[in-house]
Design brief:
alpha+beta, five-stranded mixed beta sheet
Length: 471
């Protein structure tokens, strides 16, 4: 190698003595198959900057290469650029943004380098030029790599890319499964508060993209609060129907007219939101979080720092829109997510088991139930009192161990006497049979509109000391 390097240096000194007027071609541009074949016929070492049309050649390295070419000189070193889009041999380098340097000698690839590391590239050029000089002088053997084979560096990169792809795919599948599971839990849960919420992104926000503006601020705040985006899809809305249902101005008003025009300018994006528990990690409900973030539906009525006002399009089109009241939220969900079939709040499944666990085990329990997610009907943190415990365990068997904040989970049993998945997680209590399960479900997940009546009846029954469960 040292002898070959000396020959290259001697060649450089010899070429440095050329006449000043002698022309030197510093770089060959190759954009066709014919030009590529002609390039491969060059004697010596050809250093090729392989690029794609959308990205272009590596301009930042051009100065270093020109300097090296002028210092070494000679007819054995050639610099070229080759557009991979037009050359079939270079197909695997298309659509790549990282600089790619191919070393060709004797019409074959002898080495390959990725990146814009100028010192490394210069060292490789000198090494490969010394090797090729030795080959041409009959003092060495050329080691080539077929164009259709991956170099060792490419194989390592390909394996790394595949690993990252599989990790990303697994993470995406896990996130999707978690969202679907949460949707199952939430869409059938019967709690004291409606667990489903939504946000509508108007066309001007959608056009800006998810990485900026109102969309980005919203999703960042939701993630930090521990809320879940259960579904996200584009919707095409009928202007008249939407402007009436989404509270954007009275009929015939300027606000209604502008909103209708805005809806015709492009698609909206609807987000269905929820949490596995009744409050976010900050201890506020999702409704309270959205009210603080977004503000009232009418942007001019919203605080200046709210997303509705901050990212509004004119005076009447909000940056983000969310229903202001529960009943309006229900109608908006029906409009934007017609495929979502929520369970009737007054009906209980025919066969169900209910289990109670320590509240601090919530993450462990929810994780343990992932395999039977399709059977989960409801989940919530509940304050279980003396009355509930008496009903669950029976008046003579109440022990006080169920009282306090508990994680309550309801599951379809599908003909099983008790849910086996519950038993494996050692609950504090589980419904003894499907009949009792229905009773437990109605007790711990009461319909909202019957809550007051049920509490009154329970208190009256407790005062009268009447047995609540037939023996």
């Amino acid at each position: 190698m040292a002898q070959s390097g000396a020959k290259v240096a001697a060649l450089a000194r010899r070429m440095a003595g050329r006449k000043k007027g002698e022309a030197t071609q510093l770089q060959i541009e190759v954009t066709t198959e014919e030009e590529w074949e002609k390039l491969l016929q060059k004697e010596g070492l050809v250093v090729i900057d392989v690029y794609s049309g959308w990205c272009g050649p590596c301009v930042g390295m051009l100065g270093n290469l020109k300097k090296l070419k002028l210092e070494i000189g000679g007819e054995l070193l050639h610099m070229a650029t080759a557009r991979a889009d037009e050359i079939e041999t270079l197909a695997r380098f298309r659509n790549k943004s990282e600089p790619t340097w191919m070393f060709v000698a004797g019409g074959q690839m002898v080495n390959l380098m990725f990146g814009a590391n100028a010192p490394r590239l210069c060292r490789m050029i000198l090494d490969e030029l010394a090797k090729e000089t030795a080959v041409l002088n009959g003092e060495g053997e050329r080691m080539t790599i077929p164009f259709n084979e991956l170099t060792p560096e490419e194989k390592i990169r390909k394996e790394e890319e595949e690993r990252r792809r599989l990790e990303a795919q697994a993470a995406e599948e896990e996130a999707t499964a978690a969202k679907l599971n949460a949707l199952r839990l939430l869409s059938l849960a019967r709690r004291d508060v409606d667990p489903l919420h939504l946000v509508l992104l108007p066309p001007h926000v959608v056009t800006a993209g998810p990485e900026t503006g109102a969309w980005f601020e919203l999703t960042t705040a939701l993630t930090e609060a521990g809320a879940l985006i259960l579904e996200e899809h584009q919707v095409e809305l009928e202007p008249e129907t939407a402007s009436a249902a989404l509270e954007l101005g009275a009929e015939g008003s300027e606000a209604r007219r502008e909103w209708s025009i805005a809806l015709q300018s492009g698609p909206c994006v609807a987000l269905l939101l929820g949490t596995l528990l009744e409050t976010t990690e900050q201890g506020v409900t999702l409704a309270e979080l959205l009210k603080e973030l977004i503000g009232p539906p009418t942007p001019l009525e919203a605080p200046p720092e709210s997303l509705s006002h901050k990212y509004r399009d004119g005076d009447h089109i909000p940056g983000l829109w969310a229903p202001s009241e529960p009943e309006k939220r229900t109608s908006a969900v029906a409009l934007l997510f017609p495929e979502l079939q929520e369970a009737d709040g007054g009906a209980a499944p025919v066969e169900v088991a209910v289990a109670l666990f320590e509240a601090e085990r919530q993450q462990e329990i929810l994780s343990g139930l992932q395999g039977v997610a399709e059977k989960i009907l409801a989940v919530a943190l509940r304050q279980v009192g003396g009355h509930e415990e008496t009903v669950l365990l029976g008046a003579e068997n109440a022990e006080g161990r169920l009282m306090g904040e508990r994680l309550v989970v309801a599951m379809r049993t599908d003909g099983e006497e008790r849910a086996e998945a519950f038993e494996l997680l050692t609950p504090l209590y589980v419904s003894p049979d499907p009949v009792m399960g229905v009773r437990d479900f109605q007790l711990l997940f009461p319909a909202t509109d019957k809550k007051d009546d049920e509490e009154t009846d329970a208190e009256e029954a407790k005062d009268k000391q009447e047995p609540l469960v037939e023996e």
